[in-house]
Amino acid sequence: MTKKNIEPRLLKGFQDHLPPKSKIRQEIKEKIISIYEKYGFAFIETPAIELKEILLGPGGENINKEIFFLETPEGESSCLRFDHTVPFARVIAQYPEKIKIPFRRYTVGPVWRADKPGIGRYREFVQMDIDIAGTPNPAADAEIIAIMVEVMRILGFKDFQAQINNRKLIDALLLQNGIKDIDTQKHILRVIDKLQKVGIENVRKELGEGRIDDSGDPIKGVGLSNNIIEKIINFISITGNTRKEIIHNIKQHLSEQSDAQHAINTMEELDQYLSALDIPNTEALFSPSLTRGLDYYSGPVFEMTLKNAPHIGSVMGGGRYDGLVSRFTDKTIPCTGMSIGIDRLISAMEELQLLNTQKPLYDVIITRIGKVPITEALIIAKELRNQGLKVSVYLGKKSKETLGEQLSHADHYNIPLAVILGEDELKRNEICVKDLYYGEKVRENIKDRNKYREAGTVSQITIPREKLVETIKSFIH
């Protein structure tokens, strides 16, 4: 009976991360974590699975369609987490004795959303979050934005800008125009949130009677009057060269009611704190059209955009969510935070050619010719590893492989150096070291076979055994 193999394949919306890109992902995470820790954030991990009522709240919210639902062996309804924010709110409420607020945390891990996969859109993806719990002070929001800016700088982005708004500004605009119904307000915010994706004219239609999308499906409109629609369009179209100028322009559209004034005061404070943190207007600017989709945002919201690649969308974003922790406790615990979607960020870096995909996985490969015992290779590997070098001993698929086969393996993974152990050399207490990068470079344009072979020896030297470490380090550095 012939064995039937299972087809190796992925679930729709999931992905594997293979070398060298997996290594690049890890290095990017480490750079981001270095910024988080520089600002005093502590690492926290929470489970991938939470109780359904924890994630969705008592009413189930309106995001059930995006959730992976599960059931525990005990029959409890649960879900895969769809973000790190709600689990953090639970942690703050659950451990009041262990977590003294104000508290700063960061976390790194996958989240899951059961929506339709697309280009750059997956059902499982890694997010890197930071949050500050326990203070309503806009200085906390300013620090979150400053971190967003620093992350973009450290990763090599140039033409970027954090877009900042305050949800209470739009709330004030809607209230002064008589829109008090919560569901209508949420619908308006969701429409405005589509601005970058669908354009101003489609937003105008959706605020009114609705429109037909590109697939021919009808999109229900909010049903606002033309007068109110124009007021909203004029408000979200406000621009300016500086944060101060935009605040001045916003004031022209809002009455002096207390809610509006409080939101404006918050933005003025935020501007002062960003200036104190040396964040220029070119890297962080106010944008009255920004709303962000989640219902739990309650104040300042922010997104990081790429001026030279706007089609990518935001690569990180967040905002203030002062009411979320009250889902779990009677205490008022204001919070603010942001999240980085690693997959989209890396896609942006690829498109803007900010990734070095030729970076080697390790520094040195150790090869053997003839009857050199593997113990010799292991001893040398340990010696080099003790010096902080990343070393792979070529073990091979068969008992003997040619030097060419072994170096081909190194070439596949862009390994820069090979230590070649030969029988005769070891008897003389000598070792060969080959610079694989240089060898390729000097042979680039040589067509003649003999000359090609001769050129390869230029990059290879034979040294006394005791000089191995210093020779390898001289090549590496």
Q: Write out the CATH superfamily name of the domain at 364-476.
A: Anticodon-binding domain
The number of E-state strands comes to: 18
Oligomerization status of the protein chains: single chain
Under the CATH scheme, the architecture of the domain at 364-476 is 3-Layer(aba) Sandwich
**Which class do the helix and strand fractions yield?**
alpha+beta
Instruction: Give the fraction of residues assigned to helices.
Output: 25-40%
Give the C-level CATH assignment of the domain at 364-476. Alpha Beta
Question: Largest beta sheet: what is the strand line-up?
Answer: 1-5-6-13-12-11-7-10
Number of helices: 18
Give average pLDDT, whole number: 90
Poorly predicted runs? 441-457
- Rg from Cα: 29 Å
Tell me about the biggest sheet? 8 strands, mixed
Shape: elongated
Summarize, please.
Helix content is 39%, strand content 19%.
Features:
477 residues, alpha+beta, five-stranded mixed β-sheet, Rossmann fold, 39% helix, elongated, single chain, eight-stranded mixed β-sheet
Question: Could you describe the 3D structure shown?
Answer:
- The chain is an alpha+beta fold and 477 residues long.
- It has a domain at 364-476: Rossmann fold (3-Layer(aba) Sandwich), CATH 3.40.50.
- It is built from 18 helices and 18 strands.
- The chain has helices at residues 21-38, 52-56, 85-94, 138-154, 167-176, 182-193, 195-198, 200-207, 226-236, 243-251, 258-276, 342-351, 374-385, 403-412, 423-427, 436-442, 449-456, 468-476, and strands spanning 42-43, 49-51, 69-71, 77-80, 103-112, 124-133, 160-166, 210-212, 218-220, 284-286, 300-306, 316-320, 335-341, 364-369, 391-393, 417-422, 430-435, 460-464.
- An 8-stranded mixed β-sheet has the order 1-5-6-13-12-11-7-10, sandwiched between helices.
- α5 packs antiparallel against α11.
- The chain is elongated.
- It starts with 20 loop residues before the first helix and ends with a helix.
